[in-house]
C-alpha cells in the first residue's frame, strides 16, 4: 500500500540510569551452582517476556499511524527517534510522518543498569485518530486495534502478557484521559494518573497500581517511616521521599525542575516557566475562555476557580466576627488582620508596620521610587495604583477598572 511507512524492527534500548558498582567479598562471589541455575532460568524468562512486549510494540507501530512519545522535555513532546521536541503533540505526529523514522532506532526505557529488563519498561503512545495501515479502518482504542490486527489481518500478537503500552489522545482542547475522560492541567500529571488504569504491579500497603516494577518500587519508599535528616539544613522528615523533595526544591534543583527548553533558564514554579515561554519565545499553550464573560485563562483550574468566584459567587469561608464571607481561606486570613490589629510586617527603612506582607511590598515602592503605573496620555507615572486611577478619572475622564 502506497503512503504507508513500515518502521524498522530494530529497537534501541535506552534509559538514563547510572550503572551501579557492587563491592563483594571473595566468599560472596562463590555462588552455588543451584543459585546460578535459578538466576539463568529467571533471566531467560524475563528476556522472553520482554521480547514479547517488544514484538507487540513493533506490530502496533508497523500496522498503525500511532506515534510514540519518549517524554515531555523542556520544549515539549519529545520524539522517540531523534532529539526533536514540539510544544504540541500534533506537530510531533506530523514530524514523525515527514521524517520517515522507520529507518532509525526507537528509544524506549527497557534496560536496568547494563542488562535488558522489564523493570522500567513502558511506552507512551499517541493514538489520536488511530487507524489501521493495512485496511484504513478507524479504530478508537488500542485494545480494539490489537484485536483487529490479530483477527482480521492475522498478525502475530502475544496476549498472554500485561500491557505496558499507555495510550494518549489529544483530540480535545484539554488534556483528557482517553479511558475515563478525566481532565488534567499537565501531561506529567496525566501520566501519573494512567497508573490507575494499568495495575500490572500493586502496592501491598495501599493497593495503588503501577505500570512497571520500577514505579512500584519508587512508590513503596513513601511507606517507609523513619527519621531522615536533610544534609543541607536542620530539617527532619519521616520519609525519605519527603526529604528528597525538600532537598530538590529547597537546595539542589530549585530552579532546575521547571527549565526552559529553548534558553535553559530555570524557574521556581511551572506557571512562571509558562509565562516565560509565551513572553520570550512566543510559545503559547491552550487558552481556556469563560463562557459567561470575555476572560481567558491558562489552565482549566484557573477557569473553574474564576467561574465559582465571579459567576457562581461561592463564599464558603465566613468571618467569625463580622458578616463578611470569602471565596478563599487565604482571603479570610488576610481579612482577620483587621479584627486582630496584628502588624508583624515592618519596613526596614522607616520602621512602619503593616498587617499584610502584600501591603508592605506596596509600601516599599515608595522607598524604591517604583512608578509602575503610567498615564498613556500625558506620561505621568505613579507609585500607587489608586493614585493612577484617580488621575485618569480627574484629568482624562477615564474610569479604570
UniProtKB/TrEMBL annotation:
<dbReference type="GO" id="GO:0005634">
    <property type="term" value="C:nucleus"/>
</dbReference>
<feature type="domain" description="C2H2-type">
    <location>
        <begin position="345"/>
        <end position="372"/>
    </location>
</feature>
<feature type="domain" description="C2H2-type">
    <location>
        <begin position="77"/>
        <end position="105"/>
    </location>
</feature>
<feature type="region of interest" description="Disordered">
    <location>
        <begin position="28"/>
        <end position="47"/>
    </location>
</feature>
<protein>
    <recommendedName>
        <fullName>C2H2-type domain-containing protein</fullName>
    </recommendedName>
</protein>
<feature type="domain" description="C2H2-type">
    <location>
        <begin position="228"/>
        <end position="256"/>
    </location>
</feature>
<keyword id="KW-0677">Repeat</keyword>
<feature type="domain" description="C2H2-type">
    <location>
        <begin position="288"/>
        <end position="316"/>
    </location>
</feature>
<dbReference type="GO" id="GO:0008270">
    <property type="term" value="F:zinc ion binding"/>
</dbReference>
<dbReference type="InterPro" id="IPR036236">
    <property type="entry name" value="Znf_C2H2_sf"/>
</dbReference>
<feature type="domain" description="C2H2-type">
    <location>
        <begin position="201"/>
        <end position="223"/>
    </location>
</feature>
<keyword id="KW-0863">Zinc-finger</keyword>
<feature type="domain" description="C2H2-type">
    <location>
        <begin position="373"/>
        <end position="396"/>
    </location>
</feature>
<dbReference type="InterPro" id="IPR013087">
    <property type="entry name" value="Znf_C2H2_type"/>
</dbReference>
<dbReference type="Pfam" id="PF00096">
    <property type="entry name" value="zf-C2H2"/>
</dbReference>
<keyword id="KW-0862">Zinc</keyword>
<keyword id="KW-0479">Metal-binding</keyword>
<dbReference type="Pfam" id="PF13894">
    <property type="entry name" value="zf-C2H2_4"/>
</dbReference>
<feature type="domain" description="C2H2-type">
    <location>
        <begin position="317"/>
        <end position="344"/>
    </location>
</feature>
Amino acid at each position: 500500500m502506497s503512503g504507508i511507512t513500515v518502521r524498522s524492527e530494530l529497537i534501541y534500548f535506552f534509559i538514563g540510569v547510572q550503572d551501579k558498582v557492587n563491592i563483594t567479598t571473595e566468599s560472596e562471589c562463590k555462588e552455588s551452582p543451584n543459585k546460578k541455575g535459578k538466576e539463568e532460568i529467571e533471566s531467560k524468562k524475563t528476556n522472553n517476556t520482554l521480547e514479547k512486549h517488544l514484538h507487540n510494540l513493533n506490530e502496533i507501530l508497523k500496522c498503525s499511524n500511532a506515534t510514540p512519545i519518549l517524554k515531555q522535555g523542556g520544549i515539549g513532546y519529545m520524539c522517540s527517534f531523534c532529539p526533536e521536541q514540539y510544544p504540541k503533540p500534533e506537530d510531533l505526529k506530523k514530524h514523525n510522518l515527514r521524517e520517515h523514522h522507520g529507518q532509525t532506532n526507537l528509544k524506549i526505557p527497557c534496560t536496568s543498569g547494563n542488562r535488558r529488563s522489564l523493570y522500567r519498561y513502558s511506552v507512551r503512545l499517541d493514538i489520536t485518530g488511530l487507524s489501521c495501515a493495512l485496511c484504513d479502518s478507524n479504530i478508537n482504542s488500542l485494545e480494539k486495534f490489537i484485536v483487529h490486527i490479530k483477527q482480521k489481518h492475522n498478525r502475530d500478537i502475544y496476549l498472554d502478557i500485561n500491557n505496558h503500552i499507555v495510550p494518549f489522545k489529544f483530540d480535545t482542547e484539554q488534556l483528557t484521559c482517553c479511558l475515563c475522560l478525566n481532565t488534567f492541567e499537565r501531561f506529567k500529571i496525566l501520566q501519573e494518573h494512567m497508573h490507575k488504569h494499568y495495575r500490572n504491579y500493586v502496592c501491598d500497603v495501599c493497593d495503588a497500581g503501577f505500570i512497571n516494577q520500577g514505579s512500584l518500587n519508587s512508590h513503596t519508599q513513601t511507606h517507609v517511616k523513619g527519621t531522615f535528616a536533610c544534609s543541607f539544613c536542620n530539617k527532619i522528615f519521616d520519609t525519605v521521599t519527603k526529604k528528597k523533595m525538600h532537598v530538590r526544591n529547597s537546595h539542589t534543583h530549585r530552579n532546575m525542575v521547571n527549565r526552559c527548553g529553548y534558553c535553559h533558564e530555570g524557574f521556581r514554579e511551572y506557571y512562571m516557566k509558562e509565562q516565560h515561554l509565551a513572553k520570550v519565545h512566543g510559545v503559547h499553550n491552550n487558552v481556556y475562555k469563560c463562557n459567561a464573560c470575555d476572560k481567558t485563562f491558562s489552565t482549566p483550574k484557573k477557569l473553574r476557580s474564576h467561574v465559582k468566584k465571579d459567576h457562581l459567587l461561592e463564599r464558603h469561608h465566613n468571618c467569625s466576627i463580622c458578616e463578611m464571607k470569602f471565596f478563599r481561606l487565604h482571603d479570610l486570613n488576610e481579612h482577620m488582620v483587621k479584627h486582630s490589629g496584628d502588624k508583624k510586617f515592618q519596613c526596614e527603612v522607616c520602621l512602619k508596620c503593616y498587617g499584610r506582607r502584600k501591603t508592605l511590598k506596596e509600601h516599599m515602592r515608595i522607598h524604591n521610587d517604583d512608578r509602575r503605573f503610567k498615564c498613556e496620555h500625558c506620561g505621568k507615572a505613579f507609585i500607587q495604583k489608586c493614585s493612577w486611577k484617580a488621575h485618569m478619572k480627574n484629568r482624562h475622564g477615564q474610569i479604570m477598572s
